[in-house]
């Protein structure tokens, strides 16, 4: 028997939660087939079969917390399947009793398995191609993903496909029946760590927030002028986030304490900007970062933001995506937030919060006019960031956004 162990999970990560088994006991697997998904506080780790064989034991159940080198299950490598992985049909291991209802081998990490109550036809036995986000939502809502029609390229089932599908009756976290007044659900490893980090940030920093407002007219006009050209020539959509990234980078050069970190009784000043972009994924808030944003132009920043946001939605973020950030921008405006006080992404010392752009009357040159206005907020650690510097930083961001030509020239 070949033990299936929890692999190394990444720097400083020692535990994970068994998110989902993709194979049942008795299933034949090929080398490289994903057996189980593990969810850490940062990423989802896929555990593959190192050799072909038959999964004989699942030692850990979905929802259990495991640590590096824990035994997840056992694989009988002597029971080599006749066909594995590529054929699409159920493989029968040598000397093993075939199951009553054949199951479809999962040949790639992007394939989801669903239970089938009766023997499958050849068409039914084909692997269901789906995104990680689609599989996660289907599991949460009790939806048979095999019954969902995929609209993605090659028939891949995507998140919108699952959201549009009818849900099964709700399941309580403690086995409660539909209509129960309360249900209990165990926190995932990721949710627990998010809660711990947010609480640590509030308890470990002298948290303070300052506000300002920005006239978005100039940025909106610039986007309208160039967005079609940029998308046609570079294949990326020009959103307003890259403008704020560029503005923040330039403001951080003037106020280096806002791009620093406290280490005991020392201050570490960072001569680079790894710009964290807060992304709301299905598994919770994650903050991947654009490496060396201070060395990149608007188009490259746009492309990087688009790529990390897609990886976040698809559950494909790497440890490198999530580590090394020096400053963060969060955008509550996409959910309709008008104003908020963002929590610092510890151990960073500041975070810029963006909000909904809304037409408001403002006084310009003695006249009341209607302009698209956005409130912006800077939460900062008052231990090393002076209040005056925080205010001036936000004023500088405002100036650059309201005069983007100067920002682009610089």
Entry keywords:
410 residues, alpha+beta, OB fold (Dihydrolipoamide Acetyltransferase, E2P), Chloramphenicol Acetyltransferase, 2 domains, 7-stranded mixed sheet, 4-stranded antiparallel sheet, globular
Tell me about this structure.
The protein has helices at 132-141, 159-164, 189-204, 217-234, 241-254, 298-313, 319-322, 387-402, 404-409, and strands spanning 2-5, 15-21, 28-29, 34-39, 44-48, 53-58, 65-67, 71-76, 111-112, 128-129, 207-215, 260-263, 266-269, 275-277, 279-281, 284-286, 289-290, 327-331, 350-354, 358-364, 367-381. By secondary structure, it is an alpha+beta fold. The chain folds into two domains: 2-115, RNA polymerase II/Efflux pump adaptor protein, barrel-sandwich hybrid domain (OB fold (Dihydrolipoamide Acetyltransferase, E2P)); 202-409, Chloramphenicol Acetyltransferase. Strands 11, 14, 17, 18, 19, 20 and 21 form a seven-stranded mixed β-sheet that branches. The chain has a four-stranded antiparallel β-sheet with strand order 1-8-6-3, with no helix packed on it. It has a four-stranded antiparallel β-sheet with strand order 5-4-2-7, with no helix packed on it. Strand 4 and strand 5 form a beta hairpin. It is globular, with a radius of gyration of 25 Å. Residues 82-126 and 170-174 have low confidence and may be disordered.
